[in-house]
Amino acid sequence: MIELTGNNLTVEQLKRICIHFEQIAISSKTMERVQESRVAVDRIVANKEIVYGITTGFGKFSDVRIDTKDVEDLQLHLIRSHACGIGKPFEETIARAMMVLRLNALVKGYSGVRPVLVEQLVKLVNQRIHPVIPSQGSLGASGDLAPLAHLALVMIGEGKVFDMTGKPTDAASVLAEKGIKPIVLQAKEGLALINGTQAMTAVGVINYIEAEKLAYDSEWIAGLTMEGLQAIIDAFHPAVHEARGYPQQTNVARRMTDWLEGSRLITKQGDKRVQDAYSLRCIPQVHGATWQALDYVKEKLEIEANAATDNPLIFKGGKLVISGGNFHGQPIALAMDFLKIAIAELANISERRVERLVNPQLNDLSPFLSAQPGLQSGAMIMQYAAASLVSENKTLAHPASVDSIPSSANQEDHVSMGTIASRHAREIIHNTRHVLSIECICALQAVESKGIENMAAQLKAKYHEYRNIVPTISKDRIFSTDIEAVASHLRLQNDSMGTLTLEKT
């Protein structure tokens, strides 16, 4: 059980909650903070004070005064009108992460919601009642309004949730079945639920978890390629990398050396050639730079996971209520754009290694790794597929954060597009996993021709693991099936991803 305090939620804890379904709790001390901020909201309503979103309309309607008798209707209308999501729903894992992140923001005690609303969210998370949330429609400021409105619908007994088979079903029937009474939103509560960055951050967290694993996988796959091409290990000498000074680069070189320990396929400079192409020689430099980006992204995600991002925020027991802009998603937009570029580069360099594995002008292997060159094409079109994916990644890697478009009659005149950046990063991760799968298949074939008995022990274990997934290429077959099989195994193979089966690779 993980206790949410609003202050110390980590990516590792989110992995346990959202992927391994660990349950959550809120301490009584944390609930006291929630109650204190709620008392302040009740006083504002009772005293008919003019405070944005509590006794006024929203956005351009912020100058419209709302009567006390209408504050509940104001919140209900807000949720229904803002539920404008479009397109394919987010995976359940992401919907769950959105709920946990929104809950963690609310329990900081700056949002003015009732404890009963917090308790409702805890029940939904712990009973795995996950809202169906369309993935498109957010500008990333004022936060992720449309996606979070679909989350809030479930709390009031409207909208849809995923059933046990992953199909959408009416939330009202599931809540009734579980004995959970829908919430009637009171002053500020609708706004507190939807004014924040939890959609982009939820996608970002799941992106990071998968990207981190992909970065590790890219190293042993590159190691297989190095054995298949009898590459030179000297370039990984620690002195080279310590001379530059980036710890991530040094760490990649060390891990690559560990993977290749004991290999009789790896060469020294001058044995077969003086130096390798950049896609082999510069693995620590390129992959290391991706790790630098991952470190940056993780830091920003953990800050945002513990941030108060709604508006207005309530301080000093209600003596200070400030309408600000913490809902603006620019920090996560930039982080996700950085992640896009970093993961796209793993695909770029992997595809170049695939080319070296299949091009007979660049190696001494069978042309295109074919069992019968000419009669059979072998891995020729797998390289085409990899090239297509890296080209698509280049389009997706265009920064979403440099775009903006005014909304709400120019009141909200600069927005982050952070959720678009997160979604595009997700597609790049998906594409990159498939490029690395292609490299893996080609490298497995290459090391066979060089002698499995001469492989490094750790890589030989990987060879046997993946030969159980894809057989040797003894003749042409439908390689799409192999690529998908390897990609699925890469995604699910170890504890980093647990038993995540909520999205097909």
From TrEMBL:
UniProt entry tagged with the keyword Mitochondrion: no
Q: State the InterPro entries in the record.
A: Aromatic_Lyase, Fumarase/histidase_N, HutH, L-Aspartase-like, Phe/His_NH3-lyase_AS
Recorded GO CC terms: cytoplasm
Q: What is its EC number?
A: 4.3.1.3
Main location per the UniProt record: cytoplasm
PANTHER family named in the record:
HISTIDINE AMMONIA-LYASE
Q: What is this protein called?
A: Histidine ammonia-lyase
**Recorded family membership:** Belongs to the PAL/histidase family.
Subcellular localization, as worded in the UniProt entry:
Cytoplasm
State the coiled-coil residue ranges.
none
This chain is encoded by the gene named hutH
**Reactions mediated catalytically:** L-histidine = trans-urocanate + NH4(+)
